[in-house]
Design a protein that fits this description.
GH-type_carb-bd, calcium, about 260 residues, mainly beta, Aldose_1/G6P_1-epimerase
Length: about 260
């Protein structure tokens, strides 16, 4: 477990997963073991969304890749590369064609191993500042590699009627619940404010969109995404890819409001 501290803020990170963000003693992050989701945050890469209806196959310019929901990156372990009192850097390196064990097999998937036909290096770093927590993502690899990226943090809910504010519009928790597992799309949006017992704003760079998901009333996932996967049929998921230009960087800032 890595702990970052600055002024009245404290962050806990477990093997690359953000498991706690406390400001003035208030916990913003959904706690593992609480109802709703068994994680606190994760990444969706190199695809976002399910592929079961497409036989767990995704088209790429090189070949057909075997993938499961939200990609195979989450099935890999982070390596801690660098740490200070207020920052930490984790990496995952992947060699093209390497089989990655799928934890969804066999209960929720027919695919025991997932593969991707490109090398890549995925870096996730945290920086605690006086204004909030910055989460940076850096992807390097073969020029032209197709990919999507989504960040999947879960926020703890304290009140009966929290509100999500996006593009000047309010979204009630019931609206997110009504969409179910597909997740509520918030298109063309770079900043969302979550109003609960305390307020926190999720600001982004390069993602461009969000989706919101929960199936319980004690947590909600507010997820920056590069592409909303339900905009296409599962066998056309490749239409949502962007191409790597040697390096691509993305940023999320979790900014508590005074």
């Amino acid at each position: 477990m890595v702990t970052l501290k600055k002024d009245n803020s404290r962050v806990s990170i477990d093997a690359g997963e953000l498991v706690s963000f406390e400001v003035d003693g208030h916990e913003f992050i959904h706690q593992k073991g609480s109802p709703g989701w068994g994680s606190a945050d994760t990444e969706m890469f190199p695809i976002i969304g399910p592929v079961n209806e497409a036989g767990f196959r995704v088209e790429t310019p090189k070949s057909i890749a075997v993938q499961d929901q939200h990609g195979h990156l989450r099935q890999m372990e982070y390596q801690l590369e660098h740490q200070t009192d207020t920052s930490v850097v984790y990496v995952k390196d992947y060699r093209a064609g390497t089989e990655v064990y799928n934890s969804k097999f066999p209960e929720k998937s027919t695919e025991e191993a997932l593969t991707w036909p490109y090398d890549f290096r995925f870096e996730k770093s945290f920086l605690l500042t006086k204004d909030g927590l910055e989460v940076h993502f850096s992807i390097t690899g073969e020029k032209g590699m197709p990919f999507m990226l989504g960040y999947h943090p879960a926020f703890k809910i304290y009140t009966e009627s929290p509100v999500i504010v996006a593009n000047g519009e309010e979204i009630a928790l019931d609206e997110v619940l009504a969409v179910g597992s597909r997740a509520l799309q918030v298109a063309d949006c770079t900043s969302i404010t979550f109003k609960d017992k305390k307020e926190i704003t999720i600001e982004t760079e390069e993602f461009g969109n969000f989706m919101c998901w929960t199936e319980v009333r004690n947590m909600v996932c507010i997820e920056p995404i590069s592409f909303y996967p339900y905009a296409v049929e599962q066998n056309k998921l490749h239409e949502g890819f962007q191409q790597l230009d040697n390096i691509s960087t993305f940023k999320v800032v979790l900014k508590p409001n005074a």
